[in-house]
Task: inverse folding
């Protein structure tokens, strides 16, 4: 009796909450992000959120290439690093201002994606993944190579890159950076979302689905694959040079495997192929890994009078991995998609005829 | 319309087609029959250019020699998408609908190359007339369709490309006899609306019943060709290749 009452209360609650159209929900989410600096959370938290937004751009670009086009890339760090290093090189040797280095870095990153597309067309699936994985490792060793140290700065890379707002005091500069990156995330995710849902995006999905059938439909598969690589690398290198300017640092770890696997984790957390999923995933990652485990937990321990052992830094990765594992096993299709599926099911129960936005429909669970 | 001369295809050294000659006249309904492994699908894949496209992950490409003339133009060196643009549409074996798309989106993919939006809409109506079931399934994911519906979808998708020459590969594969007949009847209807058709089939009986001219393919060679009556006259052919 009690249970059925609760169930009815729950369903009436969800029916009202999910009445809000998803677009409006996304808008509310961005509005919430806009008000974050007013919450006085401190500059460290703000910086974390900036990083979350940069990772989100990075992961969204990966999602377009892998989740939509099916070209598995495990070497997105290549574009990330190229973005950062181009910024660094241009500043170091030509002392160009930031509004020149960023477009140049993005253009060179896109060019790299375009060029990488050609050799990668010859292979498929796991082979493609392995080949793409090799490229950033090659570049990582190249920039560390001692004869090239005068150019690339060796192990240290480039330091003291120009910040975005050198004329503002520290706290205000961070706030301004936060808004700038948020705006860039907003713009780039909308651009990618629009591409993914345009005619081109549908062609991308058709390539993921069945290459032979796409060819039979008269699609120039080669051209679209290279196009997907180019767009994806464009935004990935944007993320790279943004990080370089935020951290004022471009160093060899930008080409590391950690960075290559980052968008994979973020995208699978949020839901692959959704475009909005990776954004959710990167917020979960940053909040879980960099905030709760790095700040809140040590603080909580301190308040009781204990101190965390130094080994906890190593255990952190393990704990985070375990949490991600559990989340992915529980919601294999991603947290964000799980939420939108629920939403879609409720909507569908209400009106069966009206067709929702393609994207939610496309990956909807098939019901038996 | 289509003239194939001495078409030879090798897969990694194994010969799949051996000096095949074939001719499809304007507005004809031509059938190709033959047992498993005789090279029927290879023939169609060679015609539509899918065969020689670089297949990711494969070291060797099948090699092709001979000439394929479509409306007097040599097409054997063209890419698949260029051939599709000329009006040769391939409806591939095992149907291959885009599983992650709805029926309607699949049909839209078929019309991908076309710029005439108005005619596309008209053609969509026509396709729905031919296959009323697809209209009912318009917003359903294509992977949830039954085998027969998927075959209809594949043919409908090919139709949306506004073919001059439609290459259909094994439409009866895995269908119940009654569905086979429906599909064949629709193909005939498409033919009577002015599309030239090259049908490849294992099911000899239905091909004989529908096609104007029939080619018999065995071990990569064209054994013989002719109209149904001519073929049925020859006892050897009837017993060995047609099994009737």
Result:
């Amino acid at each position: 009796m009690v249970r059925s009452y609760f169930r009815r209360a729950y369903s009436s609650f969800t029916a009202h909450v999910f009445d809000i159209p998803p677009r409006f929900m996304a808008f509310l989410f961005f509005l919430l992000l806009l008000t974050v600096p007013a919450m006085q959370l401190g500059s460290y938290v703000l910086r974390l959120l900036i990083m979350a937004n940069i990772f989100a751009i990075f992961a969204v670009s990966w999602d377009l290439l892998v989740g939509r086009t099916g070209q598995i890339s495990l070497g997105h760090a290549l574009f990330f690093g190229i973005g950062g290093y181009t910024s660094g090189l241009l500043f170091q040797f030509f002392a160009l201002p930031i509004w020149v280095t960023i477009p140049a870095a993005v253009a060179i990153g896109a060019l790299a994606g375009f060029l990488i597309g050609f050799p990668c067309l010859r292979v498929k699936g796991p082979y493609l993944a392995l080949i793409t994985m090799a490229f950033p490792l090659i570049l990582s060793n190249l920039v560390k190579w001692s004869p090239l140290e005068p150019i690339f700065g060796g192990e240290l890379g480039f330091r003291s890159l120009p910040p975005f707002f050198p004329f503002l005091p520290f706290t205000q500069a961070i706030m301004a950076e936060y808004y700038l990156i948020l705006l860039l995330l907003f713009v780039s995710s909308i651009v990618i979302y629009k591409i993914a849902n345009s005619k081109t995006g549908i062609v991308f999905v058709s390539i993921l689905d069945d290459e032979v059938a796409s060819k039979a439909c008269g699609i120039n598969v080669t051209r679209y694959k290279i196009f997907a690589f180019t767009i994806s690398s464009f935004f990935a290198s944007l993320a790279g040079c943004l990080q370089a300017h935020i951290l004022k640092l471009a160093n060899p770890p930008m080409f590391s495997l950690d960075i290559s696997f980052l968008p994979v984790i973020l995208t699978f957390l949020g839901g692959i192929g959704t475009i909005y999923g990776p954004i959710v995933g990167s917020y979960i990652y940053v909040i879980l890994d960099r905030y709760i485990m790095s700040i809140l937990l040590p603080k909580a321990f301190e308040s009781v009078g204990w101190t965390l052992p130094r080994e906890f830094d190593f255990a952190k990765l393990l704990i985070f991995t375990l949490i991600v594992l559990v989340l992915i096993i529980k919601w294999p299709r991603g947290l964000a998609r799980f939420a939108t599926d629920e939403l879609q099911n409720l909507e569908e129960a209400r009106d069966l005829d009206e067709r929702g936005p393609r994207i939610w429909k496309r990956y909807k669970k098939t019901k038996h | 319309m289509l003239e194939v001369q001495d078409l030879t295809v090798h897969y990694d050294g194994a010969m799949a087609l051996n000096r095949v000659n074939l001719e499809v006249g304007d507005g004809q309904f031509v059938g190709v029959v033959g047992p498993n492994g005789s090279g029927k699908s290879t023939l169609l894949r060679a015609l539509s250019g899918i065969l020689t496209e670089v297949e990711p992950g494969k070291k060797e490409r099948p090699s092709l020699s001979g000439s394929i003339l479509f409306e007097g133009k040599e097409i054997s060196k063209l890419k698949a998408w260029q051939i599709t643009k000329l009006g040769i549409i391939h409806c591939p074996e095992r149907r291959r609908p885009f599983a992650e798309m709805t029926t309607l989106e699949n049909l839209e993919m078929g019309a991908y190359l076309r710029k005439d939006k108005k005619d596309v809409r008209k053609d969509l109506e026509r396709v729905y007339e031919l296959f009323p079931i697809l209209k009912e399934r318009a917003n359903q994911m294509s992977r949830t369709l039954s085998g027969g519906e998927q075959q209809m979808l594949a043919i409908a998708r090919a139709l949306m490309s506004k073919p001059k020459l439609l290459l259909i590969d094994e439409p009866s594969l895995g269908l119940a006899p009654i569905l086979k007949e429906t599909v064949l009847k629709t193909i005939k209807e498409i033919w009577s609306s002015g599309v030239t058709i090259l049908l490849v089939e294992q099911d000899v009986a239905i091909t004989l019943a529908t096609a104007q001219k029939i080619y018999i393919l065995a071990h990569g060679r064209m054994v013989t060709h002719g109209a149904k009556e001519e073929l049925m006259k020859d006892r050897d052919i009837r017993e060995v290749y047609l099994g009737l």
In short: The interface with chain B takes residues 121-125, 127-128, 199, 202-203, 205-206, 208-222, 355, 358, 361-364, 366 of chain A (CB under 8 Å).
